[in-house]
């Protein structure tokens, strides 16, 4: 029997402030798969990832994580989440403290960090090239360095599913290339990756398929007219659209 997909959602409807934001959205990500979530401003990308992470309630539809319904899922150490940069406000914490918080789901309450936690934190800092900035105040970092810190926090958890909301925003092109290579390697090792993107940039080489939202619905990029929706950037390295559930490319 094959293992259930790390992420599987069907028929999601979400309303916020009385307005429909997501309509009948279905999406899945399997182990080792890197999926882009695309769409114009306000199309519902952040709302979708927040819904999938249980941060926004859905009115209809179902979400399962590693085969477990969201309502009863508890093993959050298997999941890394990188929120939009602007959603994170930390006053005095150092880079290392923020990355250390990525180990929280592995720890029992009131337990000190163990050697295995320190090793995972060091490794995550190393992976994103911030080992030399571990003692710096987060607030003193550049936008791109802050973004890399948040990615390191998610990686410190050693997740099997990584959900990222515009992780490369504000990161310079050289560092984007390094992070894309890193994410590609992790996907090759079995990590499931869902990443909200405005610009594909170096991630194009890493992605297996894309799901595009338009006005809260999943759309077929090839049949959606530009006048109806902002369909997002072209996908130079992808051969075709994939069905959001089956993952089969056209
Ligand atoms: N708490 C809220 N209450 C009411 N409406 C909201 C709320 N949060 C988001 N929205 C609306 O939902 C729609 C989708 O927003 P969302 O942030 O999910 O889009 P997005 O695709 O991530 O946009 P962007 O690319 O600009 O980040 C927008 O019209 C937004 O105004």
UniProtKB/TrEMBL annotation:
<dbReference type="InterPro" id="IPR050153">
    <property type="entry name" value="Metal_Ion_Import_ABC"/>
</dbReference>
<dbReference type="InterPro" id="IPR003593">
    <property type="entry name" value="AAA+_ATPase"/>
</dbReference>
<dbReference type="GO" id="GO:0016887">
    <property type="term" value="F:ATP hydrolysis activity"/>
</dbReference>
<keyword id="KW-0067">ATP-binding</keyword>
<comment type="similarity">
    <text>Belongs to the ABC transporter superfamily.</text>
</comment>
<dbReference type="Pfam" id="PF00005">
    <property type="entry name" value="ABC_tran"/>
</dbReference>
<protein>
    <submittedName>
        <fullName>ABC transporter ATP-binding protein</fullName>
    </submittedName>
</protein>
<keyword id="KW-0813">Transport</keyword>
<keyword id="KW-0547">Nucleotide-binding</keyword>
<dbReference type="InterPro" id="IPR003439">
    <property type="entry name" value="ABC_transporter-like_ATP-bd"/>
</dbReference>
<dbReference type="GO" id="GO:0005524">
    <property type="term" value="F:ATP binding"/>
</dbReference>
<dbReference type="InterPro" id="IPR027417">
    <property type="entry name" value="P-loop_NTPase"/>
</dbReference>
